[in-house]
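The aim of this short unit is practical: by the end, you should be able to scan a pair of folded records and say something sensible about each. We start with the first protein, listed as its amino acid sequence and then its C-alpha cells.
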Amino acid sequence: GDDDDADAATGFAALLGGAALVSPFFLWGTSMVAMKTVLPATSPLFVASVRLVPAGAVLIAWAALNKRPWPNTANAWAAIALFGLVDGTMFQGFLSEGLQRTSAGLGSVIIDSQPLTVAVLASVIYGETIGAGGVFGLFLGVVGLLMLELPREALEGLFHGDAATAIAAITSGVDAEGGLWESGEWWMLLAAQSMAVGTVMVRWVCKYVDPVMATGWHMALGGVPLLAYSVINEPEVYSRLGELTGNEVGGLVYTSMLGSALAYGAFFYFASRGSLTKLSSLTFLTPMFAALFGYILLGETLDEVQLAGALV
C-alpha cells in the first residue's frame, strides 16, 4: 500500500534526479553536433557569441523573475568578470576554434579531459578527497583519452616503450601544418583547461553571487568580447545571416537556449551544491552523446582504437 507508493515515488524522484544531473552533459554533447552544422555557414566566433550572450540574457531574466538576488557588491562583479573571462570568453572561443578543426565527437572527448584538472585543483584548493576508486576511474579516463587523441603510431610507440617514436608521431603534424595553433586538438585542450578552472571557480563565485545570476551574467559578459571581435573582423558573416537555412537557425537556437542557458544553469547549480570532482567526472558522458549523435546526424565515425577509447 502506502509503503509501496512511497518507494515508487522515491525511486521516481531518484531517477528524475539522475536525469537532471546527466542533462547538462547530454545537452552539451548534442549541441556540439548542432554547432558543427552551423559553423560552415557562419564562423567560430559568431557561434561562440550566440552561444553566450542570448543564453546569458535569458538566465538573468529568469533569475530576476524568480526574485533571485542581484549581484550588488564590488566583490560580486569582480568574481563575475573573472568567471566570465575564463569560462565564457576563453572557453567558448577556444571550443569554437577547435570544433572547426576536429569532429564533434573527438573534440568533445578532448574537452572532457577537464575532470582530471578539476580533481587535482579541487583537492588542492578545497581539500576534496578522491578515493582509490575515484583515482582508478580518472586513470581509466586518461587512458581512454589517449586512445582517442593520439595518432596510431604514437600509441604503438608507447605500447612498445619507445618514447622517441611516440613523441615524433605526436609532433609530426605540428610544424608542417602551420604550428600548434592550427591544431584542433590543441584548441580543445585549451578549452578543457579553461572549463576546468571555471568549474573550480564556481564555489568561490557563489560566495558573492547567486549561482543562477552568476551563470547568466558570466555568459552575457563573457560573450561580449567574442561578439565585438566577430562584428569588427567578420562583416561577411553578418551579411549572410539572411541566407541561413531553417536547420542552421534551429541549430543556433538549440545551442544557445538548451546547450547553454539550460545546461550551464543546471551544471553550475549542481556544482555550487555538491562535490566538484564527482560532478565533473560525469563530463566523460558528453563525448559519448557527441559521438553518438555525430554518427547519427552527421555520419561522423571514430576508428576502432578511438571507439575503444570512448568506451573506456
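Turning to the second protein, read its sequence before its C-alpha cells, just as you did above.
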Amino acid sequence: AVDYNIGDDCSVHGFHFYTLNLERSTTRILASLGALDVDSPTSAGAALQENDTDAAIGSETNDQDQIVTRRERKESISEKARSTKRVLPWKPSTMDNRSKEDVRPINWSNRPKSYVMRTDDWDEFPNGRWGDSTSPAFGELSDLSHFYSFTLGCDDDRRAMLGHCPLNESDVYEVFARYVEGTVPHIPWCETPLQPESFLIQPQLAKLNRCGLLTVNSQPPVDGAPSNHPTFGWGGKGGRVYQRGYFECFVSPDKTNRLTSMVTKHPSMIMYAVNNAGQELRVGVEEGGVTALTWGVFPNREILQPTIFDPDAFLVWAEEAFSLWSTMWLSLYDFGSESYELIENMKDTYYLVAIIDNDYYTNDGFLLLDALLEVGGKCS
C-alpha cells in the first residue's frame, strides 16, 4: 500500500522506485501522486508548478527553503516520469560514446545487452541511417556476446520454465506459446516479457507457436500512427510513425517450405531463412540491402529510421540464435537422453526465418499475420 499524502511531507526529499523489467506500476504510482499527467505528458511540469503554487499559498509555514526543496523534488519526479516516454522504439544506451546512436537492426530487439556488447568496440555508431554494415568505421559484430547470457536462475528454475523432460516437439512449442501468453517469463532469445505492441496479436501469436512457428521477434504494421500513440508512439510529439509487418521464427524444414509457398503468393512479402549449417534461402528478394522496418516523420527533422533489417546482420544474429539452443536449453539435460536429443535435433534441423511484409497499409488488417495463420491451420 502507498500513502499518497507522503508527498505533502516536506521532510521527504525524494522517492526511489525499484522495478523488475516493467515500469507500469511505477508509472501508476507517479500518476496517483500527481507527478505524471497520463493524458498529456508535456503538461506534467506545468501541473506540478501549479500544485506547488497552491501549496505555497496554503502553507502555514514561511520557510521558503522548504517550499523550494519541495518544488525541486516534484520537478525531479516529473522529469523522470517524462523520461519514460520512448525516444526511440528501442531503449537507447546511456553510454556517452553511443549518445548519437539512433539506428539498430531489429534482430537483437529482445536481447539488447547482447547487441551492445557485440558493438562495444565500434569507433562509430549508426546515426540517421544504417549504411554499409561492412564499413570499417562500424567494425564487425564481435563474438563477445556469446559470453553474455541473462540469468534464468539455477538449473531447476530453468527446467521449470523450459521443461523438465520434453519428449516431443509439441512440448517445446508449448514453452514458446506460454512465453507469449506471459506464463513463462523468459526464453533464451527473449530476455524481457512480450513487447506491448505484440499484446494486440497475443492470441494469434500463441496459436502460431503451438503450431510450430516458434516466434522470437515480431511487429505488426503501422500506417501513420501519431507519435504520442500509447503503444506505437516514439520520438516526441507532432509526428507520425510507420512500420512494416515483421515475423521471425524457428521452423522445421517442412514448415519452411510452406512459408516459402506463402511468400511466393504475396508479392509484397520477402523471406530470409538460414539453418545451423549455414544453408541460406531467400524468397522474393531482389538486388538490394537494408530495409527500414520502423520510421518516423517529425516537424523540422529528417525522416528517422531507427529499426532496420540487414541481411548480413541477420546471418550474424542467426549464429547467436542457434548457439542459444545449446548454451541455454540443451545443457539442461543429460547427454544422450531423449530430451537432449530432441533439443539437439531441433537446433540442427530447424531454420531461422525472417519475413517482411512491405505492405504496411493496415485497413485490410495484418496481412502477414493472416497468411501465417493460414499456414498454421495446415500445421495443426
